[in-house]
Design goal:
Elements: E1 3-5, H1 12-23, H2 25-34, E2 46-50, E3 56-69, E4 72-84, H3 90-108, E5 112-115
Parallel strand pairs: 4-5
Antiparallel strand pairs: 1-2, 2-3, 3-4
């Protein structure tokens, strides 16, 4: 399983197809309108695993956040849209991707990570 950063905007349609398959049609329109346009969007914070056919088998992204505790503002990241197709590795792909996202958060200097 090879992990790579997305190629933006070339991967846009493939990512949106993956999101529709993993997260459902109900969320698709909102996510399609938002993906790539959020504040702080950085393709380096979006990772995919390609399946054997070349289609996206797993995807996850980091959404930059800041958390204020008293006077301190801490660089934080939310892990979002993490999902994998079951027939293409499922939970193993998600775990691999999650580890890569954590490494990216460390590289970015995030001191806290959020996941919902």
């Amino acid at each position: 399983m090879g992990i790579r950063n997305i190629r933006w905007p070339q991967d846009r349609e493939a990512i949106l197809d993956h999101i529709r398959l993993v997260h459902g049609v109900g969320d698709y329109e909102v996510l399609a309108a938002w993906y790539g346009d959020g504040p702080g969007f950085d393709p380096a914070d979006c990772l995919v695993i390609e399946g054997e056919s070349g289609a996206i088998a797993a995807h996850g992204m980091i959404i930059p956040r800041q958390l204020q505790i008293g006077p301190s503002v801490l660089p934080t990241a939310e892990i979002g849209l993490l999902g994998a197709l079951d027939e293409q590795g499922g939970q193993a792909a998600q775990q691999t991707l999650l580890e890569a996202l954590h490494a990216r958060m460390t590289e970015r200097g995030d001191v806290l990570g959020l996941s919902f």
